[in-house]
Task: structure prediction
Amino acid sequence: MSFRINPVLRTGLEDEARKVGVNLNTLVSQIFSRYMTWERYAGQLKFLPVSKDLLREVFQSMQRETVERIARRLGESSAREQILFLFKQANIGAVLKFIDLWGSHFEACDHNYDGKKHFFTLHHDVNLNFSIFVKEYVSTMIQSTVARIVQFETVSPNSVTFSFDG
Result:
C-alpha cells in the first residue's frame, strides 16, 4: 500500500522516526493504530486533552463527596451514552471495549481475563481524588450498564485496580 503525502510532512515523519529509533513504516503504523484505537473516538465524543497538572489541581481542590457525586453522575449517564454512541449496544462486550478505549489514554492500562473475571489496572499518576473518581465512575458505569459488581483491590494516589465477572 502506498500514500502520497506532502514532502514537508514526509521529512518531518522521517525525522521523528529517526529520533524515536524506528523506521518510517513502523512510525506510520503506530500513528494509524493510535488513530484507530483512540483519536477517532476522542474526536467523535468531543474529548479535550488536558494536562496532568490541570487534573491534579482540579481534583486536589475538590471534596471527596463532590468527586464521588460527579463520578457517579457521569458513570451513569455520560458513560452509558458514550457506549451506546460508539458500539450501538450496552452489553458486556461493549463495556469491555469502552474500558479498554477509555483506559488507553492513561499512562498504563492492563486488562486480563482468566476465563471468569476481567482484571484491570489503570495507572494515571494524578492523585488520590482522581483514583476515587475513577473508582466511582467505573463501578457506576458497569453497574448501570451490565449489572456487575465491581471489586476494587487498589485505590491509590497513582492507580486503580479492579475486577468484575465476565
Remarks:
- The longest strand covers residues 117-123.
